[in-house]
Design a protein that fits this description.
Layout (H helix, E strand, L loop, with lengths): L6 E7 L2 E7 L2 E7 L2 E7 L2 E5 L5 E5 L1 H6 L5 H32 L4 H9 L16 E5 L4 E5 L2 E7 L2 E7 L2 E8 L2 E7 L8
Antiparallel strand pairs: 1-12, 2-11, 3-10, 4-9, 5-8, 6-7
Length: 189
């Protein structure tokens, strides 16, 4: 028996698979920490009159120069004024009496007498110093300490993690099939 041309046929079917992939999710959200610092500076409040009190008592100095205080000087001046008025009146009464006698050159004599000035007295020496007193004003101060306020808020970290998944599903399985064509030989038996 003769073998005629036999043809071997082959058919293959590849594997087909579906992959169902869910990615891994990793979300990280943060809130930063907050530190607040508030300060108020220290304050010193000073209350005082800027200058003290200066007292100058010149009565010893004035007394050594012969100058009296206001009350004594007023009294002595009033007495001297009264005395001057009385002397003026007595002097004019004498002048009137002299004019009534008409024995001398009365006008010339009166004029000569009225021009004579008394010689002033001058004294040389140390004078007492004035009394000087200074009273300083006290300084009043009100210190207020500095203030420091610190507040903090913690930061937060939020993590959202979901695992990824891989799903494998076979949609077609592999197969190989052989057969022959032509010829009288059946190799399938």
């Amino acid at each position: 028996m003769a073998i005629s041309n036999i043809r071997l046929n082959m058919e293959s079917q590849p594997v087909k698979a579906e992959l169902d992939i869910q990615k891994t999710v990793f979300n990280l959200s943060t809130t930063p920490a907050v530190l607040s610092i508030d300060t108020e500076p220290a304050v010193v409040e000073i209350t005082s009159r800027p200058y003290g009190t200066l007292e100058i008592d010149q009565s010893p100095c004035r007394a050594s120069m012969g100058i009296k205080d206001l009350e004594t000087m007023s009294r002595e001046t009033a007495e001297k004024g009264k005395q001057a008025v009385l002397e003026y009146m007595a002097n004019h009464a004498q002048i009137g009496d002299r004019m009534a006698k008409i024995k001398e050159d009365i006008i010339v004599n009166i004029a000569a007498e009225s021009t004579v000035q008394p010689i002033p007295s001058i004294s040389w020496g140390w004078k007492d110093s004035p009394i000087i007193r200074y009273t300083a004003n006290p300084v009043k101060y009100n210190p207020q300490p500095a203030k420091l306020d610190i507040s903090s808020e913690r930061g937060t970290v939020d993590i959202d993690y979901r695992e990824g998944k891989v799903g494998l599903r076979m949609t077609q399985y592999p197969s190989i099939r052989f057969w022959t064509t032509g010829g009288n030989v059946d190799i399938t038996k």
